[in-house]
Specification:
Layout lengths: L5 E2 H7 L11 E6 L3 E7 L19 H17 L9 E11 L8 E12 L2 E10 L2 E12 L1
Antiparallel strand pairs: 1-2, 2-3, 3-5, 4-7, 5-6, 6-7
Amino acid sequence: MTGAPFGRNVIESIIPHRDPFLFLDEVLELEPGVRVVARTEVRGDEWFFRGHFPGRPIMPGVIMVEAMAQAGAVAVLSEEANRGKLALFAGIDSVRFKRLVSPGDELVLVCALEQARGPIGRGKATATVGGKLAVRGTLTFAAQ
């Protein structure tokens, strides 16, 4: 499957995540098993902003990491051999947060898969806002 760009309907046919825990709005580029570029609009009405933080809404870092992982899951699970499987976290390494993400921002997520051995793989992921790095890290996954 390389018919990017595509929206939530196709994303939901690839990964099992659903609202309120689906953090991708669109896949812009896709090379199955290699690389993905996706985006999400940070609207401000998301459930996590009620408590993070009242009066100064900031997207939680763990949600940004989850969004990067969901993008990576699209790259992994769009491969024919992995269709219908789950991509689960097996590790999160070298994550660094570089800027705040707030309502009104568009988060662009890139995940480039580096290696895969059987069901275990690793990918380098970034999230940017307006071309500026918000978070980066290495994600390890297990496809089951």
